[in-house]
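Example for tutorial group B:
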């Protein structure tokens, strides 16, 4: 399994909009590109951090090279409007292979 970790700073007051856009985009990316989905977190400094799981690096790389384009233009526009800062070129801060996995899958 392969994971990619991303972060975003969101305009004040746009947090709910960002989270909705992130959910919709993640669902589309999962359906279109074959990811295993993602988790969204919020750091103490307010930054949002997403952890996405993929079957392997090659699957993630194909999706990243395609810029993870999906059919929900409204969700993409909501995302872009809400984000004020992110790493250059949307690159993940970590892109890594899972070596050991002891994460328990909790309830939804």
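The residue assignment follows.
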């Amino acid at each position: 399994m392969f994971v990619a970790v991303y972060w975003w700073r969101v305009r004040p007051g746009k947090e709910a909009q960002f989270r909705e856009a992130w959910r919709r985009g993640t669902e589309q990316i999962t359906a279109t590109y074959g990811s295993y989905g993602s988790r969204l977190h919020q750091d103490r400094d307010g930054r949002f951090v997403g952890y996405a799981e993929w079957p392997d690096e090659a699957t993630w790389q194909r999706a990243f090279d395609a810029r993870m384009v999906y059919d929900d233009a409204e969700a993409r526009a909501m995302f872009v409007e809400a984000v004020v800062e992110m790493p250059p070129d949307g690159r993940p801060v970590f892109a890594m292979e899972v070596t050991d996995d002891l994460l328990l899958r909790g309830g939804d």
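The chain has three helices and five strands. Compare this with the pattern of hydrophobic and polar residues in the output above.
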